[in-house]
Amino acid sequence: MAVLVTSSFVEMLLRDDRAWAPLVLSVSMVVAACLLWRRTSPLAAVAVAFGALLAFDIARIAAVDATGLTSIAGVLVLPYALLRWGTGREAALGLGIILIWLPVTLVAESTSPAERVAGYGFFLFSAALGAAVRYRTSSRVREIEQVRLRQRNELARELHDTVGHRVSAIAVQAQAGRALSAADPVRALATLVTIEEEASRTLREMRALVGVLRDGTDADLAPRRGLADIELLARPGGEVLGVRVQVSGDVDAVDPAVSTALYLIAAEAVTNATRHASNATQVTVDVAASRGQVRLRVHDDGAACTAGSAPAGFGLRGMAERASLIGGTLQAGPDPDGGWSVDASLPHTVRAS
What we know:
The protein is α+β, with helices and mostly antiparallel strands and 353 residues long.
């Protein structure tokens, strides 16, 4: 807006015809001001801007011998904004206003047939560009949402395995406690304590399960791989990228759902490195389980790249969504020492997001 206002004043000062300067400047200021509303109220911006231009052009035809400023060309932004941010009804009404104004202004300017065609073309192109950008943005939002829903379904499947395992363990412990209740009350009491702990952990995971099943679809309940299977990702290299895997710490204490999430993140990161790492010779996968946390780092030794040149694909979004749902974090990006790294930190037990 500041550029349009400044250019309007400069152009007015440089013109020889200043008879209608206040009127011409007022119209230019109205058009410039309407650009401020183009996102929040595109129809209102179009109505006010083109309404002012229509009144100005009718006055020019009837009595006023004045020409508009070239800075008024900023009005071309409004058809784009109308189709980009307006609703369907707003787009129809706004285009109607523009199509009413166009023939009037072309008459006021006494343009040639070629100039009239070009005038219509400019405004139609602006509107078409806005519609195209809107469609592309909406499509990408839908794709991202599909990634989020797919990750929730997969996590629900993993949590189903975990909860099923825990409930089975509770049932076995309850049977044992019932058998020991008469002969050995002390051991029966210890069994009840174990049942209580398992039930509490299962309840937490059930709450997480309810939280991730938001799309209402049925999840595939087939068992999934876990931390123990990460070592299967290792390969010596040669024609394909070599993968070195190192697992340390008490990984047996990690919940099955977290274990599966770590495996899937590692597998996705290795796949991304195989497909996209330029001139890479090896990928290292390091898993370290400490008290309450499990850390995963996947690093390739490919050519260094900047954040701007890195692909922002749905694979990275899916990994980040998976880590977030479990209560962890994930960061991915170029490594200062070269190559690309994926760093994930997940809790031992599942936490609802």
